[in-house]
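Entry for the shared binder. Reason: the reviewer on the internal report wants the predicted structure included alongside the sequence.
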Amino acid sequence: MAPWQELAQWLIRGPAVLVRVAQVEGSGPREVGAWMAVDASGLLGTIGGGQLEHEAMAEARAGLAAGHVLRALRRVALGPSLGQCCGGVVHLEFEWLDASHVAGLRERLGGEAQWAPVALFGGGHVGRALVEVLARLPLCIHWVDSREEVFPAGLDPRVSTEHSEPVQGAVPGLAPGSRVLIMSFSHAEDLDILAACLKRWRERADLPFIGLIGSRTKWAKFQARLRERGFSDAELAAVHCPIGLPGITGKQPEVIAIAVAAQLLSLPGG
């Protein structure tokens, strides 16, 4: 469940105070737009923790007790007033929320429009582990497989699924800017998906990352086959294989998932 959806459920039960980072001067613990919601007994989200969050939470709860926010804006110099080492100045915005605000929460707090799209081909062990990791990050995931009934129930709403046969038929419809991860159950499928991605990269150049799971030996064999299909060395250079941030070792699905997630986050705009 996305945080804005959990907040919507809160507001049906009762009011909350939204605390959002409105401006940061210098160094701060969180970026502009980071938020937390505070009700009488709970906390959702974070503006960075530490003394800043502690005092903001106390002020929000005082506002809840009073029936209104005590002030709409608060300027906090982290060093002089809180003794935090960040050294910057954070401007916090306080806002009263109740059930009347539920309808607009996704547009205001969801942030999906700014999240990078990820296209994941393959519903195996690594694919499932990756979805569990990526669904917690500011990414929108489109999950594709040629097999029916491979996707588990209860997926996060930001994960869309597609059964595509042939599986490479889904490539032309991917969102522009998609980071593509290829890890199907079949090397033949992997090759066809990769060829379709390279064809799209040749025509539109709108897939900024194409990653293929596998060893260097697998990639050497794939390169030979792709050259036979007419792809140039320059086009093959767009492919990342093996995938995953270098230095993270281990072949367990969860380890691979973390390494790939870290690699995606290291990309420009990731």
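Summary line for the report: The domain at 112-265 is CATH 3.40.50.720 (Rossmann fold).
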